[in-house]
Fold:
Amino acid sequence: MVARSGWQYVVFSALTLPHMGCGDSGRREEVRGGAIATKTRDPARSDSLRHDFGLLLAGRRATHRFEIRNESHATWTFKQFHPTCSCTVVAASSPAIKPGSSVFVEVDYKSPAADSNELRRIGVEFTEQEAPFLWLEVMAKVREPVSILPSSISLRKAGNPGPVESTFEVSNYTDRDLKIDSIESSERWVAAVPKSEIRGEGPSEPRQVWRVLLTADATGLAPKRYRADLLVKVSGAGGEPVEQPKPLVVELVIEPAAEAIPAQLFFGEVGAKELAERRMLVRLRPEAKASVQGELAFQHDLGELLKVSGKRTGKNYWEVTVILRVGDATSRDISGILKVKFPGDVLPEIRVPVLGRIAPK
Structure:
């Protein structure tokens, strides 16, 4: 016991839960712990009394019971519980705690339906000013029976076609051995193969973990964003059916090997017989590992209105100057495409929109 300001209270807990895992074996375990809180009514400064459920399967319920003992000289009357989410339900065995006695506060928690490392809080407020404000906290490592981490993979590829690789893990949190039957992809450009299997250790660790190699082949794919779903199909060691994991989402972004900065040229409003100049940078992405010899060529559909020139300023850079010449043309909008072409067509052309307006005379 530790006394503070003439009073003290000790919070300890007793938890009884089924053994974790699919197919409950009927074994039960008891967890006990203790904590001492300080005297304060400020929720921001009050003590947090925490219990860790450890591994908890997704979508399951767990109950934790705190015993609050009042060793002050005044009764503490429960005023309100302040849960931070709807996943917790709180109930007290009595509306008040008399001096020298205890009351149990039971926290019923439901884990989310997906993998998550949870921390939830419930504030305990008493009516009496001299009573403390207390936070009860519950933690849990929530995992689906068969969990895939990460739940999504994002890959990027610039220019140079070919494969790009990544890895993910499939973890078995059930209480029996499983096997991976197959990994199926919704798209032909991505595939995955299990490479190794290890055994977990400890009550919060998975029973089995497979490391899987994922390969995305960008060959023949145009620059844009692609998506595929990987379905990991598992079964019991004897082939019996089990709950299947959620699909792994794979995103592949193919970027062009070269880019224009800015991506469009906007001249605004240009008066008759005026000139307007804009500059842009053409850059080879270093990760594309592209090699270009010589100067750029330019084509556009704006006739005499546009004059374009460029010069190489570095191994991977060109500076392009674009001049808009407005003669006696009547008022109208300007809209066209400037094509930037590479020597020998070693890279796809860059199409740059050109926008503006010829002002009335």
In short: Residues 1-40 have pLDDT under 50 and may be disordered. The longest strand covers residues 225-236. Residues 212 and 226 are 21 Å apart (CA to CA).
